[in-house]
Amino acid sequence: MVPLSYYLLLSGFLFGCGVVGFLIKRNIITIFMSIELMLNGVNLSFVAFAAHWHALAGQVFVFFVMVVAAAEAAVGLAIIIAVYRTRETLNVDQMNLLKL
Amino acid sequence: MHLILFLAFGAVCVGGAVNLLAQRHPINSALSLIAVMAALAGEYLLLGAEFVAAVQVIVYAGAIMVLFVFVIMLLNAGEEEETKASRVALLLGVPGMLTGGVLMAWVVLRHSGTEAVAIGALPGHPTDIAQLLFHDFLLPFEVTSVLILIAIMGAVVLASKPESQAGRPD
Amino acid sequence: MNPMLNLWLIPVLPLAGAAINGFLGRKSSRPAVTTVALFFSGAAFAMALWVAMQFSSLSLPYHEYVAHWIRSGSFSVDFAFYLDQLSLVMLLVVTGVGFLIHIYAVGYMWDDPSYYRFFSYLNLFMFFMLTLVLANNYLMMFIGWEGVGLASYLLIGFWFTKDSAASAGKKAFIVNRIGDFGFLIALFLLIKHFGSLNFEQVFQQISPISPETAGAGLLTAIGILLMVGACGKSAQIPLYIWLPDAMEGPTPVSALIHAATMVTAGVYMVARSHVIFERAPTALTVVAIIGTLTAFFAATIGIAQTDIKKVLAYSTVSQLGYMFMACGVGAFSAGIFHLMTHAFFKGLLFLAAGSVIHAVGGEQDMRKMGGLRSYVPWTFLTMGIATLAIAGVPPLAGFWSKDEILWKAYQVSKVYWGIGVITAFITSFYMFRLLYMTFFGDYHGAQVDAHGHGSHGGDAHGHGEPHESPAVMLAPLLILAALSLVGGLVGWGNHFEHFLAPVLGAGEAVEGASRGTELLLMGVSVAVALLGWWLAYVLYYARPELPQKIADALGGFYQTVVHKYYVDEIYAALFVKPLIDGSTRILWQEVDRKIIDAAVNDAGEGARHVSDEARHMQSGNLRSYAGWIAAGSAVVIAFMIWMGVR
């Protein structure tokens, strides 16, 4: 019998690591992976609550989150490839053409 | 028993997450992320969500992460260089986040009640999930399939080599 | 019941003339403009005569309601006309003298390039003046009051390209406005305490009130405030300063507006409000004092003026003072009587002066005239008659009215009478001085050369020698001269007073006023008039070198009088300069520039600064975007937690 809060703490920790990685890392692919980490943390939270409240809808929602994550990863990586073709770099600090 | 298994899988998750941050080469980060996902699948099984765990391994670890690894190898990503700013962030940020994290954890543990989750608390049989999916959540299901279609088309268009367009440097 | 007289036509006809000439006159020929102008003003006069003929068969007062105007709770004001003996007198004077002056102006203004505009304005003035006279409530009267001020401004500044004319017009309007402020406050008091501005309703409510003897009170306040308005419009102390400057306008304007009609509006208003004044002795005293002082003061200034029109202007101010003196001693009908005769002889004086100016090609300085008797005999004749009238020589009109005033003043206070007599002496003196300087002696003027321009821009044609005016200008002179001769006879046997009695109340019979005293005083008036004549004869005909010697002997005092006691300069220093300085230094530089402009500019600057700072958010750097997203989402999550915990 594991207290719910343990699951939530773990979930929160994973999410936090994802955020930190998103902010710190300079390689754009690593930033993407941090995003995936965030999503995973959230998935854990969903499943934990689904178990706690006996609501299967929580697990169904995890299913949807994964679908969205997949789609987003596909498109995002395609964008990265396209950007890499012009910028020749994966350093996110050099992708600054949007500045005023 | 439940607790030990939880802690074991949890340790792998934590370790993988921290390693993702610590590593400089993206391929190492990718591999640690795979480890995190695998451990998470274990966590899901502990909670009884067998379908979700399977999907996690197949889709997340097996497809998405493979895609990541493909791209890393395709683009020949190298190590991140270490700059002065990142050293400072490391020296200041890590202790800071650690303190913050510990603080929050302590608060949460203090104030949580005795809700506990049993092992295999909510068995997520595929049949039950399918029932929900195709009855109550039919519309989101269909919409997400459209979403995937769009993503496929987008990815193909974005990543394709451009036709020789006038004035576009290659 | 009274038949419908269609009184509304009387003001509206000149308005139509003004509109037609105003809009269509520029492209029309002079005869066309003349026809329109004379037709509509003549039609108004004809209607006034017709109304006068109906007068005996009417039950007075006659009301004519045209349209309702203001309905605000229990307060209502209508466009409605009112006819009684007093307004009939005013009506005939205004339309009659007005029509004559229109005829005169045809000749006087013939060569002016803005001929049509002049008649448009003149007709417009008639409209407003008639509205004023025929109104049945104070508010409509105020419309006419303001409107004649506007017409006066337009006509004084008729030659607006000339700086002095434009300034004079402005001065007239502004000073009038100061008086109007007092008038307005009186109206507000009337509305507040009597709930109406309709003459009948107000006077009905006021009649039962006994005279305020305590010296202060509502009616006194209203009376004094109305008098303030009259001071502005009728050029009394302290607001008379605009009238001499108004001589910048063409002479027909001076004759009509600043002698016969507009300036008398104040007297009419005071007479109309006699119900109020009779119950406020303090206000009456104020009126009398102002009138007497003004009469004397203006007369002294008139002695030393050399411009023929300025002499007449101060004379007008002085005679208006007489009218207010009459009202102030309770002799309202005497004041109106003098108003009527003054319209005749002062109108005639101005028109004749215009004829003189026309004759000498625009020159207005009397020192450059002289000996014109042989050149312009008809003008001399008519002007002589007018001079006799104003000096108060019997049996001309001025004698009857002025004597009436002095008689009534004697019954109230010998001080008023004394000052009035002295002023009569001075009046006679300066009028005959004008006559001798202009028409007798040798002609000092320059030969009026062909195409010579007079110094005052009015007349621009010269024919070599001073010449008589054309018939179109002489005819009104003759008619007015006839009126000056016989117009006073309506005062014989107190006929005029009895005629106006239903409106103004019968004059109080004062004890101890015997026929003998009256005749004695009459004799004194005549003697004084003749004395003035004799003195003028001596100084300006027999021994013309004397005036200069006297002037030198009096030195500084004489200079002060010549400069009109420096009143304009005093006002400029006391009021005008501080206002302009205050406006420049405080309102413009401080309030406008530093507060208002600064607020607007700073708002713009502020917006720019804020966006300058905010711009840094859009750095193009992905990681800073990521940072902002993280920060923002942290805030949102914190807020949601806080809401959940609450």
Structure, described:
- The complex is a heterotrimer of chains A (100), B (170) and C (646).
- By secondary structure, chain A is mainly α.
- Chain A is built from 3 helices and 1 strand; from the N terminus they run E-H-H-H.
- The longest helix of chain A is centred in the last third of the chain and has 31 residues, at 57-87.
- Chain B has 6 helices and 1 strand, in the order H-H-H-H-E-H-H.
- Chain B has helices spanning 2-22, 26-46, 50-75, 84-111, 126-135, 138-159, and one strand at residues 116-117.
- The longest helix of chain B is centred in the middle third of the chain and has 28 residues, at 84-111.
- In chain C, a hairpin with a 2-residue loop joins strand 1 (62-72) and strand 2.
- Residues 449-462 of chain C have low confidence and may be disordered.
- Helices cover 71% and strands 3% of the residues of chain C.
- Chain C has 25 helices and 2 strands.
- Chain C has helices at residues 9-24, 30-54, 85-108, 115-134, 138-156, 163-194, 199-206, 218-233, 242-245, 251-260, 265-272, 274-278, 281-303, 308-328, 332-359, 377-391, 397-412, 414-439, 471-486, 495-504, 515-542, 546-554, 556-562, 567-614, 622-645, and strands at residues 62-72, 75-83.
- With 646 residues, chain C is mainly alpha-helical.
- Chains A and B meet through strand 1, helix 1, helix 2 and helix 3 of A and helix 1, helix 2, helix 3, helix 4 and strand 1 of B.
- Strand 1 (2-3) of chain A pairs antiparallel with strand 1 of chain B, so a sheet runs across the interface.
What's the helix and strand layout?
The complex is a heterotrimer of chains A (100), B (170) and C (646).
Chain A: E1 2-3, H1 4-24, H2 28-53, H3 57-87
Chain B: H1 2-22, H2 26-46, H3 50-75, H4 84-111, E1 116-117, H5 126-135, H6 138-159
Helix pairs in contact in B: 1-2, 2-3
Chain C: H1 9-24, H2 30-54, E1 62-72, E2 75-83, H3 85-108, H4 115-134, H5 138-156, H6 163-194, H7 199-206, H8 218-233, H9 242-245, H10 251-260, H11 265-272, H12 274-278, H13 281-303, H14 308-328, H15 332-359, H16 377-391, H17 397-412, H18 414-439, H19 471-486, H20 495-504, H21 515-542, H22 546-554, H23 556-562, H24 567-614, H25 622-645
Antiparallel strand pairs in C: 1-2
Helix pairs in contact in C: 1-2, 1-4, 2-3, 2-4, 3-4, 3-10, 3-15, 3-19, 4-5, 5-6, 6-8, 8-11, 8-13, 10-15, 11-15, 13-14, 13-18, 14-15, 14-17, 14-18, 15-16, 15-17, 15-19, 15-20, 16-18, 16-19, 17-18, 17-21, 18-21
